Queue: 2 jobs
Job 1
Amino acid sequence: MLESISTSPAKDLDKQKAKKISKQNIKKIIELQKIMAAQQKYSLLVIFQGLDASGKDGATRSVFSGINPSGISVSSFKKPTDKEFAHDFLWRIHKEVPVKGMIKIFNRSHYEDILVPSVEGYLPKKMINQRYKQINHFERLLTQNNTIILKFYLHNSPDNQLQRLNERLEIKEKHFKHNDGDWDTREKRAAYLSVYEKIFKKCSTPKWTVVAADENWYKTYVISSMVLKAMQKLDLKWPDLQTDRM
């Protein structure tokens, strides 16, 4: 399924027009977040998943960097620590969900706790299947508490991934991103995509958006448009004045 989905922008979309729309979207998102923070009724959780070098960091910067730092934060979930292993797998995740009024970005998320053990085979299938169900219950809990969840899979091509991984070796400013393990993961692309397809099917509420990620401008356009659309659906209002001085 995923291999049949294009990683390039829609051919009928004008690049310059899309960039202009993205700028407008981001300005509106910034203003709506101010109201969200003041109202403290809703929160927004944005989940970015994707293979290594799919541009999760870049998507975070391009769409959300203009927001007041007091209204947004980012968490990234890698291999669990010994302390995290000693708890249920959602323990470290639940601590990081957004409080009301906040936007939270998950750069990798609880889905890593299905993805990696499924591919590497170090958890039994029964436990993996339980995790699918537990994630569904967890996300339903968040949704019922006015947390809007947007889930994005950033879909890049093997050639694009190779180019970006090589840049991490060749460009000094990108050395810090290099991880030898990313090359091992690249060799297992088919296995990872297969698990992602299961995730999309079994954890489909809220639904996933597959974003063609080979071109950064298109990625920004799609994500900013969907974030803005979700925020515009909320009943965002500036709160009334609370005072005894009148």
Job 2
Amino acid sequence: MNDEYKCPKCSSENTYQDGNLWVCPDCSHEWDPADSENGAEDVAESNVVLDSNNNLLSDGDSVTVIKDLKVKGSISGIKAGTKVKGIRLIESNDGHNISCKIDGIGAMYLKSEFVKKL
């Protein structure tokens, strides 16, 4: 298969054409192979992490958890309103794109959709 039809985000060859766009069912990415700036745009998109209110997050930000979250191995979990300081953004395939330490629980990975920026 030609490299221009591989997914530029996850490099999967499992892609199909939908009109003018190509679609990757593995990572849900859509792209136009005729778009020459697409590669640079994808790199910039992959580094962008937004909170639940679509605010841009960056390393060192403080956030608040917006929903009670269950934690494996813990009885109490994380309560809504818990403040988390000094987050670190990571790349992950399972959606957990924030690495942090929470008082009383320890090191955790969180999904950005369950936090809001302070």
